[in-house]
Amino acid sequence: MGRIRKKFQSGTSSIYISRKKALKKLQLTLKDFRRLCILKGIYPREPLHKKKANKGSTENKIYYHVKDVNFLANEPLINKFREYKIFLRRLTRAKAKGQKDHAERLLENKPQFRLDLLVKERYPTFASALRDMDDALCLLFAFAALPRTKAVKGNVVADCRRLTTEFMHYVIESHSLTKTFVSIKGIYYQAEIMGEKITWIVPHERGIGHVTEVDFNVMATFVDFYVAMISFVNFRLYKALGLFYPPKLSNNVDEKNFVFEENDLDEKIYSLARPIARTQTSEPEPTIDTFSESDTQESLAEKMKIAQALRTLFAKCKFFLNREVSKEAMALIIRSCGGTVSWEGCIAKVYDEKNEKITHHVIDRPLDNVDINRAYVQPQWVFDSFNARKLLPTDKYAPGRTLPPHLSPFVEEKIGEYVPLEKIEQLKEDGKDITHLLKPDEDKKKEVKPKRQKTKPETPESGMSVKTGKVFKENLQKKLNQVGQELKLREMMIPKKHRRVYKKIKYGQKRQASEKKKLESKRQNN
Amino acid sequence: MGKGKKKGWKRVPREADENIHDVNLKRHISNLPDEEMFVIDTTALPLEDEKPAELTFKQKAALKHKLCKSALKDEDVDMKDLELKTFPRVAFSSETIKTRSNKLDQASTKYDLWEEDNTKPAESTSNDFEAVGIEHYDKVLQRKRRKAPKATRFVPNIIPAVEIPKEGASYNPTLDSYVAYANQIVQEELKMEKAEKKINKNLPAKNVSNVGPGAEFEDFRSLLNRDEEEDASDDENPISTNVSSKTARTKPKTIKQKKLALLRKIQSLQKDKESMSKKQLQEFSNLKKTLRDVRKEEDEHKAKIAARKQQKVLDSLTKRKKLGRGEFKAYEEPVLLTEELTGNLRQLPSRGNILEERFKSLQKRNILPIAGERKKSNRKTTFKVKFVEKRSVKEVTKGSRVL
């Protein structure tokens, strides 16, 4: 007699474990378990057969892999969580009893844990860390603008700000920014760092409204992890480029009269206006790390040329930003193309508003006083010039003028797709072949449709006229049909219990009527 | 195992694994100047104006007791006792209390995590047995970090974290792209509206008719009366009504008719047979073609199976899985109305929240589960009062009435 195998002991049911059971196994609270999963990178699974995984019932549960949970059980971070819980308990007791010294001592010896090992575990190589930078950067940029709350702590927000600024400094120094796009949500950037294309969004500098569906505790845990990760990534990136980490201002400018206080120095670095110090003086050559198979030697050489041209796009331009323009975005783009930038109230100011050498003044509101020697442009000029890789004519972007539409560089031209007129013109200027982009009925669409003067197509006025009318003939059949339909409707409305009786009565009536007819026909025949 | 042997374990450093990074820390700390390690706290935090704290019950009771006592003894009450004894308010602010490792935390990240030099120095042992022993010791004492099992290297989703924005989402879009983008969003809204309408349609009607319950009977009878009228006027009307009666049953067949029918049946069967043989001949001639068709169909079928399998794998990597019973509400892409499309960056109204987008994106990429609401238990929350009659035996005495 063989062994009796019970159901749900092996296979799917033994691989997956529900969240409640996992909590019981690990002896953690739900909050701690959530934190641990986020920090360790453990994700819930969806089993193929829910019924099997749930041992017969089809309830909707959150399942985790048993091996994941066993792996979590060996995590020393759990001990730190428990220590923190004990610390909190002691602290509240001390506060309630009024033992100030004891409470202060407890706070000084607050248990802190470092996430270095977790970062190393999740990203064994630097390249794998770079691949996850998208998410990390977006979150950090979003958090850097948040106000301090119970879930979002002040030092976390300060850390986010610091790390994002350091990253922006790196992008500037390495000239790796490739695309920008201003959308309704925020500004999209794409940079190519060590062969990885990193895309991130920076929200516009406005207050964040009421958010209902976001769990800030969860996001705060993500941010904790990403803060640890990005600080290491930044260190490595800075080392690779030969910059000092943490960043220091380069000593090119004469700073005799400055009083150095620590906060001021941080603010100067945060302002992105000045270059940071390097350990080696030579800048690395532009490298193209992403290759596609269709690239030939010439196209690669072209790409190198374009990359080199991008580095010096704004080299001969001196920019001044007006007060209402977003300074971080502008400084990032202008400086990564080699330009210099300054604005009113900048702590690390290089030059003043009245400086004669300023070539471009970025302004977003109606002009007051005009200086003839400089070109006044709206901020979209900077974005568009960067995307187009050349200095566009500034007259189209003069303040007060309707701007040409801001196109997204993320869209790639495919044969057969409609390409907007502005892009076609741009390509024409570049001397590229655009016949494949034009469709046969392109001529009609070539009419420039300015957005402002959107008029609705005028309908031809319907004139009054008299025509001879038709005689109204009543269709008897239609009438009868309608009557019949009405009757059917009313029959449908009869309640169920009366329906049987009704049917029987009707049947009886019909039978009588048919008999009558039969008799009459017989009489007629005879 | 003896007590002494167990105590010996405590002397082993438990966090030797973290010592690797502490080494860097210590190296760094010993080099740090005093200014970077210690901070002179210049922020003076004023204590808030305190409201006179309320006396606790104990204090009140003690005060009362004292007053009573003094009243009894006709002593003068000590005014100091009547004053409120307030404990100094403990004011906590994280700025005043700098945690010990605030500054040291920053220092800890100043090394390259991915550098190969930072690995644990190989412990040179002469004996192979020693190495095995040390390994075991490490495992048992949890000094060595466990490696992540293969099952943990799970990729939840391959969708890129940040999705490429649509052309029409620009703050200053072209007309066509904006119209296309707005249309998309309008379609989504229409879908939602349709779903809402459907739900509202199935709700019970608010306006119930004023007709009472007996009215149904009346209607029913009126229909019958009508029917009678109709039947009377039926002969006059040559035009047929939609409400047609069933056709009358046909008369039974005569023998002759039956024989004819049988003959016809036999004839039709013979015809079929002939056509079948004709067909078969045709089929033989078209055998090659049919075989080719069959093979083609089979190949298509196999290709479909393979495509379906591939699609399934792709779906498991790209689609959102249902983790938990909560409902997923997709992030609504922000749109600007035509009045708001001024093309001016300064006047751009704030729409859309990036934190929400990130949160929803994490849910979409199967990283965060959506737990939904807690299950409501079916237990009763109100209880019936049980009336218990309590009778004591002692109440029963001579002459008492027990009802």
From TrEMBL, chain A:
GO biological process entries: maturation of 5.8S rRNA from tricistronic rRNA transcript (SSU-rRNA, 5.8S rRNA, LSU-rRNA); maturation of LSU-rRNA from tricistronic rRNA transcript (SSU-rRNA, 5.8S rRNA, LSU-rRNA)
PANTHER family reported in the protein's UniProt record: PESCADILLO - RELATED (PTHR12221), PESCADILLO HOMOLOG (PTHR12221:SF6)
Compositionally biased intervals (Basic residues): 498-509
Protein name: Pescadillo homolog
One cellular-component annotation, GO: nucleoplasm
Keywords, sorted A to Z: Nucleus, Ribosome biogenesis, rRNA processing
Compartments where found: Nucleus, Nucleolus; Nucleus, Nucleoplasm
Family the entry assigns: Belongs to the pescadillo family.
HAMAP family per UniProt: Pescadillo (MF_03028)
PROSITE patterns (UniProt xref): BRCT (PS50172)
UniProt cross-references to CDD domains, sorted A to Z: BRCT_pescadillo_like
Annotated ranges, domain BRCT: 309-399
Origin species: Acrobeloides nanus
GO MF annotation: an example: ribonucleoprotein complex binding
Function text: Required for maturation of ribosomal RNAs and formation of the large ribosomal subunit.
Pfam families: BRCT_2, Pescadillo_N
From TrEMBL, chain B:
Pfam families cross-referenced by the UniProt entry: Nop53
Subcellular location: Nucleus, Nucleolus; Nucleus, Nucleoplasm
GO biological process: ribosomal large subunit assembly; rRNA processing
GO MF annotation list: 5S rRNA binding
Coiled coil start-end: 259-304
Keywords: Coiled coil, Nucleus, Ribosome biogenesis
Bias (Acidic residues) ranges: 227-237
Bias (Polar residues): 238-247
Function: May play a role in ribosome biogenesis.
Family, as annotated: Belongs to the NOP53 family.
Protein name from the UniProt record: Ribosome biogenesis protein NOP53
Source organism (scientific name): Acrobeloides nanus
